[in-house]
Amino acid sequence: MRGESVVVVGAGQAGCQVAVSLREQGHRGPITIVGDEQAAPYQRPPLTKAYLAGETDLAGLVLRQDSYYEDHGIKLIRNERVIGVDRRARVAVLGCARTIGYDHLVFATGARPRPLPIPGAEHVLNLRTVADADAIRRRLDGRIGLDVVVIGGGFIGLEFAAVVRKLRHEVTVVEAQPQVMQRAVSAETAQHLVNRHRSEGVQILTGTGVAAVREGLVELADGTVLVADLVVAGIGVIPNTEVAQRAGLAVDDGILVDAHLGTVDPRIRAVGDCARFASTHAGGLIRLESVQNATDQATTVAAAILGSAEPYTALPWFWSDQYDVKLQTAGLTNGHDRTVTVGDPAEGRFSVFCFKNDKLVGIEAYNRPIDFLMGRRILESGTALTPEVVARPGFDLRASQQKAA
Amino acid sequence: MPKITYVTHDGVETVVDVAQDDTVMRGAVLNGIKGIVAQCGGGASCGTCHVYVDPENTKPLSQMHQVEDELLYFTACERKENSRLSCQLPVTEEQDGLVVHMPEKQL
């Protein structure tokens, strides 16, 4: 198997990790990563946090030093796109018309911000790349007290709101759903986050759509008009699947892959935000947008290229930093029908245990990192934990597991 | 730049120049040193950048916060007196010459 060449399409967290894991696992053949950004592969999570706040620069975000790629025989092609894949000839076609042959190809093309389907969307900035964050920083640079409207109350929108508030701007978050972070967390956790934002002086409007954006103004569906020096949207993403689709691979809100992250073409796999896979944790096809998913899928795919038959089964987990709140979730909590809260919500340290049909499906740890790590272990091992047990007065996850062990 | 020495579980030593205000974790990851995973990228969220500070160490180290303290109970290898999460160890000239030992595994 040694000597086979791998082309990785996309240079985000997943794409970079495919190359890193291949080398770590002993792959000897050529590896090429093609990415359409100028920057070397970098971490995106700090873009809504330390980077936006000016606490770190691009050098603080890169996943590996430039010399790493050279030292490990990884060819990194930047500022370039793969525009086509000829599966019969086994070549990737670059935008400059050059071709690169492959024995294995991995799509790690990521996703792009979902455009706002309203008039005036051209006045709205997104936050996905370093270039996006730089554009926002230029608009905020050195000023205070600007009116900033955030469209979308998901992870990106709320983290962005928290940082911009700390930079002393006036922030309003507009969320179309009745609850912020509806896809990601329980109503309890969402409410605590909303309370926290409000206590910092951020205005959060839920159940409110945006009708139009005009220069300096945001018009809501209910007729309210907000003054806005800057409008930023975070309303979800669209997976980048066009090249895979043109290559004749199955695509449906993501490149469809099996439990081993393989497509119907045994030489082509997909990882990260762009891959829609059969999840044992979700009990169906899902797409996950997270660092955990990007890196764990990349590691699985690297092993698969080297001959492993291990399926991808990693437990999903996420984190979000907003003000001094560290929210960590383990498992997939959407679709839960019962929650039990442990700890002290009034003190801002608690965990929400989410159950579905009395089975634990996820834990949301709000400033309780121990519960997060314990929760990961419990969910990974499939240890049964009923709502009744968790709801007992004085329940402590750590003590309960020590007793069990 | 301050130099940090990383010693793998099987005794391989690598000396790395780490930029001011980067962390001991970043110094390892940026240079592809095996033995530090850092799943969360430095957010004190995952406990996979565990190191043992050299027992002979005399360099000043950052104070341990509660989150780090709690996470250290859940590392893959046993917590010792000299255990730290390397993402919580910022590097300045004062740490020049610091030696850290990596545990057998992080996951």
From TrEMBL, chain A:
Superkingdom of this protein's organism: Bacteria
Pfam families: Pyr_redox_2, Reductase_C
Assigned GO CC terms: cytoplasm
InterPro entries referenced in this protein's UniProt entry, alphabetically: FAD-oxidoreductase/Apoptosis, FAD/NAD-bd_sf, FAD/NAD-binding_dom, FAD/NAD-linked_Rdtase_dimer_sf, Reductase_C
One annotated GO molecular function: dioxygenase activity
Keyword Flavoprotein: yes
Cofactor(s) needed by this chain: FAD
Stated name of the protein: 3-phenylpropionate/trans-cinnamate dioxygenase ferredoxin reductase subunit
Automatic annotation (TrEMBL), chain B:
Annotated ranges, domain 2Fe-2S ferredoxin-type: 2-106
Taxonomic superkingdom: Bacteria
Keyword Iron listed: yes
Gene3D superfamilies linked to this entry: 3.10.20.30
Entry-linked Pfam families: Fer2
Requisite cofactors: [2Fe-2S] cluster
Keyword DNA-binding attributed: no
UniProt cross-references to PROSITE patterns, sorted A to Z: 2FE2S_FER_2
Cellular component aspect of the GO annotation: cytosol
GO biological process, one term: P450-containing electron transport chain
Molecular-function GO term, any one: metal ion binding
SUPFAM superfamilies: 2Fe-2S ferredoxin-like
InterPro entries registered for this protein in UniProt: 2Fe-2S_ferredoxin-like_sf (IPR036010), 2Fe-2S_ferredoxin-type (IPR001041), Adrenodoxin-like (IPR001055), Beta-grasp_dom_sf (IPR012675)
Alphabetized UniProt keyword annotations: 2Fe-2S, Iron, Iron-sulfur, Metal-binding
Family the UniProt entry places it in: Belongs to the adrenodoxin/putidaredoxin family.
Protein name per its UniProtKB record: Ferredoxin, 2Fe-2S
Originating species: Lentzea xinjiangensis
